[in-house]
Structure formats: C-alpha cells, structure tokens
Amino acid sequence: MVLCRIFTILDQRKQAKTQWLQDPNQSDVDNLKNLRREAYEHSRKRKKKYLRSKTDELENKSMIKNIRDMYWGIREIKND
What are 62-76's pLDDT values in tens digits? Predict the structure, then answer.
C-alpha cells in the first residue's frame, strides 16, 4: 500500500515533467512544483518513520543488554 502510493506520486511527477517539457507554460510549472513538493514530503516522512522505528529497536536492544547488536544497528544508520 505504501509502495503503491510512492509509485503513483513518482509517476504523476514524471508525467507532469514530460507535459511541461512538451508545452512549457505557467500552469504546468506550478503543477510540477506541487508534485515535486509532495514527493519530497512523502519520502521525508517515510524516512523519519523508518529512523524512529530503528532507534526504538536500538533502544530495546540496549535495554536487554544486547550491546553488540545495538552498535551494529548504529553503524547501519550512519552508513545509510
């Protein structure tokens, strides 16, 4: 469901860009800007949600004294 939403947003953005390239006018520019903003906000929200769940998972690992996995998870977050 979530992947379907991001793909539809990206497809809409791609269609708006091709439409703008074929016939550049102000309404197409505004439409493209709005779709770019929407795609950026959606991906930013997904990333924030992922990082929040990852930090909760690392916090749980530190609570149960699983230090090696905790540091492994921290390294994964830094490298992303």
Answer: 888 888 888 888 888
Domain extent at residue 71: 55-80
Residue type, 28: D
One-letter amino acid at 31 equals N
What are the E-state strand segments in the chain? none
Q: CA–CA separation, 2 vs 49, rounded Å?
A: 12
Cα maximum dimension of the chain: 61
Interatomic CA distance for residues 54 and 70, integer angstroms: 10
Question: Would residue 80 count as lying in a domain?
Answer: yes
pTM, to two decimals = 0.69
Q: What is the three-class DSSP state of 24? A: coil
Crossing angle between the packed helical segments 67-79 and 26-63, to the nearest 10 degrees: 160
Residue 62 within any structural domain of the chain: yes
